[in-house]
Amino acid sequence: MRGPELTTGRLLLRRWRDGDREPFAALNGDPEVMEHFPSLQDRATSDGMVERIEATFDEHGFGLWAVALRESGEFLGFTGLQPVTFEASFSPTTEIGWRFARHAWGHGYATEAARAALAFGFDELGLGEIVAMTAWSNERSMAVMRRLGMRRDPAADFEHPRIPEGSPVRPHVLYRLGAADWRTA
């Protein structure tokens, strides 16, 4: 199963290709891109992430799409949906997430791609709610969440169980968007 491709005015959200692995590893090894994550990723760890993303597509029919410019095909990063697989006050649910190469920042790509992923989640999958989460210090991602119409739920902020205790990026904020709010936005 290849899974759906999504298009926007400028972007193609598609399944991963072998040619995406090198630029993806480069962005995962960029200290500025990974500032709000526990550590940088080496090539093997980055490739393992691609394998897990593809397995999610195969299992659920959706996942974290590779994002490329429609005009040139240039790989920019990822945006998509994934099931929350750890126990939290807000799970089970589906999360939207994104990560882009530094050269792709400031162009509105994350917001544009995320809107397409949200539309797919609400309109095609029939989800009732989609959440987004990030380290409390990641103002760039929180700004995207707000542009998408998501609202922070301070009561659901949490310590991410997959990040070691004591890490400055373990405290996370949670944003929510319900299907009804999406449709009226």
TrEMBL record:
<keyword id="KW-0012">Acyltransferase</keyword>
<dbReference type="InterPro" id="IPR016181">
    <property type="entry name" value="Acyl_CoA_acyltransferase"/>
</dbReference>
<dbReference type="GO" id="GO:0008999">
    <property type="term" value="F:protein-N-terminal-alanine acetyltransferase activity"/>
</dbReference>
<dbReference type="Pfam" id="PF13302">
    <property type="entry name" value="Acetyltransf_3"/>
</dbReference>
<dbReference type="InterPro" id="IPR051531">
    <property type="entry name" value="N-acetyltransferase"/>
</dbReference>
<protein>
    <submittedName>
        <fullName>Ribosomal-protein-alanine N-acetyltransferase</fullName>
        <ecNumber>2.3.1.267</ecNumber>
    </submittedName>
</protein>
<keyword id="KW-0808">Transferase</keyword>
<feature type="domain" description="N-acetyltransferase">
    <location>
        <begin position="11"/>
        <end position="180"/>
    </location>
</feature>
<dbReference type="InterPro" id="IPR000182">
    <property type="entry name" value="GNAT_dom"/>
</dbReference>
